[in-house]
Amino acid sequence: MAVDYTVIVVYLAGMLAMGWWGMRRAKSKSEFLVAGRRLGPAMYSGTMAAIVLGGASTIGGVGLGYQYGLSGAWMVFTIGLGLLALSIFFSARIARLKVYTVSEMLDLRYGGRAGVISGVVMWAYTLMLAVTSTIAYATIFDVLFDMNRTLAIILGGSIVVAYSTLGGMWSITLTDMVQFVVKTIGVLLLLLPIAVVKAGGFSEMKATLPTEYFDPLGIGGETIFTYVLIYTFGMLIGQDIWQRVFTARSDTTAKWGGTVAGTYCLAYALAGAVIGTAAKVLYPNLASADDAFATIVKDELPMGVRGLVLAAALAAVMSTSSGALIACATVANNDIWSRLRGVVRPDGEAHDEVKGNRFFILLMGVAVIATAIALNNVVEALTVAYNLLVGGLLVPILGGLLWRRGTAQGALASVVVGGVAVITLMATYGILANEPVYYGLLSSLVAYVAVSLLTTPTDAAVLAAWRERLAGRDPELVSEPVPAGQ
Predict the structure, then answer these.
(1) What is d(CA 254, CA 93) in angstroms, rounded to the nearest whole number?
(2) Is 296 exposed, middle or buried (0-12, 13-18, 19+ CB in 10 A)?
(3) Are 466 and 259 within 8 A, CB to CB?
(4) Average pLDDT in the chain
């Protein structure tokens, strides 16, 4: 295992080095939170794919393949569909807004009265998303070093917190590009073909496993529908995803770069399901489907290659973890803390903005690590995160983008009613039940439409300013110059 250890240690050291390098570039709020809004198509595509394909997509995707066969691809497939929908239909308009958070978008659209409540819901979502990624370190480090769960979470989480705190979005962008390359090589180019060959090829896999393992709808129509509601719609509105859209150099970059990333996700989904199906042939009696990834890597791959593939799993976890962490800190500082204090500093106070956001990343990082140690169920934590996001924020966000008649009162009612309904139904039916997101989303929609129609339409001046901002024509909008060569 010495070669594998060396690969992992070099990889982790490289992540910290990039954090240090990113710190030298992050000199303003824009540089620190959205990489100066200057990412080109290649870097934008790589980092967007990296953030949406995390530990749940990699380890969990292989586990679903182990349990259901090829139809286990649906969870990650719906993530790719969501990213494609976001990129094709909404990302150009989102990029032109030149904001930092989803709540700022809601304030612009509805007239400045939706921020704190929506910020709290978005903060809860990003916190739980970061926690789920951080919990996953325990699985990977256990395979690598037979490490205690708590120590593994602290080690993995501390590295992500360190490079994220140092350089903000620049550090995260640089590390995500490396992580994208490592994931592509480790999972798609190495683990996928090796797993299929070790299982005897597709003909042997079909001969060994039941036919339902090769049914594209074998996981069940209701499950697929729930995945669409949670993950496809979740991709449309999550702060972690929007914050990456804000990094695009232009609306064209956001649209086409995101389309490439979404297409990559579809291929990644199928790869994970095939690897899991191969693992079922090789190890038919694993105690847990989620053990399939670690088992096939540990037992079937040669040294060096094993280290690279485990580095790919680390890359998947770290990219999602760092993206969720900076999103959580951005919302906590800009949407909640600053608003509660009544303090909104101008962008010109660059040093204070960077220092404040850096402090919040460190603070939220400590909270994430502590929460991850206390919790043990990744699926439940991820379900809570997406139920809150979709049930509380999907309707007012998409409503604001698509329906002129929506009002601030309708948006607030939608957030509160949808959020309360989701929490109540999770307590009643159970966290993993489908009812919370179904009825939470429906109640949010009813509240939004009813209250909007019963209240005074949004002021014409607010809507006019909103349209100008969407078109990128706001005369008061100051964009930082893009240096030559960027």
Answers:
(1) 9
(2) buried
(3) no
(4) 86
